[in-house]
Amino acid sequence: MRKLLAAALCLAATVTATGCGANVESAKDAKSTSGSAEKAVTLTNCGQKITFDKAPERVVTNDVGITELMFALGLEDRMAGFAMPDDKGDLSGVPWKDGYDKVKWLSKDQLTKENVLDANADLVFAGWNYGFREDAGFTPDALKKLGVPSYILTESCRNGRSETSRGIMPPLDALYTDLTNLGKLFGVEKRAATLIADFRKQIADVRSEAPAKSPRVFLYDSGQDQPFTSGRFAAPEQIITEAGGVNVMHDVEDSWTTVGWESVVQRDPDVIVICDYGDVTAEQKKKFLLSYAPLRGVSAIKNKRIFVLDYVDLVESPRNPSAIARLGTYLKTVSES
Fold it and tell me: Where is the signal peptide (predicted)?
């Protein structure tokens, strides 16, 4: 992942520092002034009530966005480690780099039961398709049998429309829900509330500058035979909308899912946003899109309007507001051209 531009770093850094105008309490200060961290706490997670007798002290997380939610709340000292593939880019330029320096990198793949038990974890924070998966037997129910509770990323909550479809609320609401829940669980409610307020303000500032005519946007994650993209319930939906665009797959009632190229052609996006991660580079993805014959007549391809965001920008994470700002700037230039 490319290091963010200075302005974007400043925007994102408001969640962890006072240098760009935010004024948030430290996790240490929050714990010293709030008793909730040491009392039983009941949360609603994916529609289910879960109760913790006390705040977990050895949390393990799966994937970059989930891990950075913990870091943004200053909860490094409550973590026993994280799992994350090493294709998530350069982490040295992120506002909460200290978290990566302090917390153990347990695996460069997804979490396993062995990781969890070796770390003596007392909470697993992951999501469906962000660590939790039936095929490997790594599920909240399986962990419960081992005596380890779980918290499921709200963006990934299953919605019952199919066995695997995900998403129960708008993506930014999912982000705010998780920050609120984590704040309550760890006794850092003030810090969580400040983060949410900062995010709302940043996003409102972008929205106030949005173009009058909203460009149609398609999110391209990967895939050549069929594209993997974002429906209504994944973070790109509101990243695109709040930036001033329209997600052409808004009617798909799922988070991340596969569609057909014919539906992309029919919806004729003005802009394609590439999700940058994995073994296939953003430049290779762009080259494929520009050379793929069925897309030849699509406006975004004809005008070479392709914008790149990093993986962590496009999953539920504290980097979502910065992604909205950067995409908003680009969409404004598209609308004015």
Answer: 1-22
